[in-house]
Amino acid sequence: MANHMCLYGILLFTMTESVLSLPLRASLSDPRGPHFTSIKGPSKIKAGVTTEFVCSAMCTPECSYTWQVSGQEAQGDTLTVTVSGQHQSLELVCTAVNPTNNDSQSTDKTVQVDNQVMVNPTTGADPQEGHAFMLACKGSGPGITTVWYKDNEPIAADQRIWLTENHAMLNFSSLLPPDGGYYECVVTNSTIRVTSRGYQLSFGTIAVSLLGPDTVEAGVEHTFTCQADCTLACSITWSFPHGFPQGSFSFRGDTVRWTPATPGLVQVFQCSAQNSLAQRTAQATKRVTVSAPPTTPAPPLPPTPSGSVVERPSLALVSMVCLQLLFALSA
């Protein structure tokens, strides 16, 4: 008979313990395993939709199974999960234990969470104090109950902050400093409840510039720096739209070091400064041309000593020498 366990928080679990009879040939005095522990289930799940995962191992006698998910523990070989959608991925760890010799083996699985409910600004303009601003809950609509939260607290509407029909949009007539915070919407219908991807409302700017030469010499190391000017917390990422640089290449943090190898090549560098929660990004691009190393000039002739005269043999002398050589060869 199945046992059920519910763990509340980000996840809802239902655990089912499987009891299998031992094979006739198995002996409790001869325990084997666990071996080949694995988790069966999808690699991507939808927020609010219940999904099942099964842990199995080759084990004699039958192993017991323990799951670790988001800091919570549950028993049984079958795990039923319903994610709220607040996180982009879910880490599953299953440990199989042989009850006779206590040998164990663990395996893990990373599951991506597909959440179509999110909070976004309705325009591309950055929030500014004293200006109107609007947030939309994508996924809200008729027949769906929508509740807005700021920093995990329900939002109370007033004369300055109000909600549209169906609570699909949150409006600010004039932003004030206390309006800064993390905004989420929770949508519920008769079957599911999903928490949106959130939006960090922050007052500030993000800017970036890419420092380095526009023309570089093949065979010489050059340095490029992504310089971010952020009044918000921001992180730096590099990308190379036309492929990784050819030659010796490394990057760490805001700095790229490159020794190009091919003259005539045009390399494109791109760096970005971003705050993903505030959905703010700034980007800089640089096109760099690789030139050939300079050619080495021929060494100069030794200088002629001052006052000296360079004598050249006369035509008559040259002719006489040639005739003597001819006679000598014919003799």
Can you walk through the features of this model?
With 331 residues, the protein is mainly beta. It has three domains: 11-23 and 30-114, Immunoglobulin-like (Sandwich); 118-201, Sandwich (Immunoglobulin-like); 206-291, Immunoglobulin-like (Sandwich). It is built from one helix and 26 strands. It has a five-stranded mixed sheet, with no helix packed on it. Strands 12, 13, 16, 17 and 18 form a five-stranded antiparallel sheet that branches. Strands 1-7-4-2 form a four-stranded antiparallel sheet, with no helix packed on it. A hairpin with a 4-residue loop joins β16 and β17. The longest helix has 16 residues, at 315-330. It is flat. The termini are far apart. Mean pLDDT is 84; it is low at 1-26.
Which spans of ≥5 residues are poorly predicted at pLDDT below 50? 1-26
CATH topology of the largest domain: Immunoglobulin-like
Strand order of the largest sheet: 3-9-8-5-6
Query: What is the class of the largest domain in the CATH system?
Result: Mainly Beta
Helix/strand order, N-terminal first: EEEEEEEEEEEEEEEEEEEEEEEEEEH
Q: Work out the helix count.
A: 1
Structural class: mainly beta
Protein name: Hemicentin-2-like isoform X2
InterPro entries: Ig-like_dom, Ig-like_dom_sf, Ig-like_fold, IgSF_CEA-related
Signal peptide: 1-21
Biased composition (Pro residues): 294-305
